[in-house]
Amino acid sequence: MKSVLLGLAMLVFGGALAFGGGRTLYRAHASRSWPVVEGSVVSSVVETVRNKRAVSFQPHVRYRYTVDGASYTSENISFGGGAAGETLEEANAFVRRLPEGAPVQLHYAPGDASLVCLDCQRVSLADYGVTGGGAVLVGLAVLSLVETARFELRMRRLEHRASLAGGPGRRAS
């Protein structure tokens, strides 16, 4: 029973990783062909992100745009993780290209103009790693569950044969 629960947990966790990573990669690649609208930068700064192990620098750009008469504001630079963990020099160079008031070309999803990106080409190796890692977990979970089911079926067959061999009117040899 433990192996079934572990297999199911791996299946759910791996499926979530593969789905989330796959959706990120899909959006990053598909967004390149989405409709384009011009927007303007509201603010552009570099944020310092600290954790126990490291410090990273991330560009933070807020922009506004209008599609079909509706106004939107967003901070999404890219769907992939390519904008995260940049060096200070890279992050500063990125935000210098986008000063407040600067015009920007944005790609928005057909049918959902609130789903937008500024730098749609950015994906990182980590995005592929999350997707691939999730897919591997799903595969291992399926193999584990299939093997557990095969083992249980084999054990039941052996028990059934043993009960037939030792049943009334038969002699075990």
UniProtKB/TrEMBL annotation:
<feature type="domain" description="DUF3592">
    <location>
        <begin position="37"/>
        <end position="119"/>
    </location>
</feature>
<protein>
    <submittedName>
        <fullName>DUF3592 domain-containing protein</fullName>
    </submittedName>
</protein>
<dbReference type="InterPro" id="IPR021994">
    <property type="entry name" value="DUF3592"/>
</dbReference>
<dbReference type="Pfam" id="PF12158">
    <property type="entry name" value="DUF3592"/>
</dbReference>
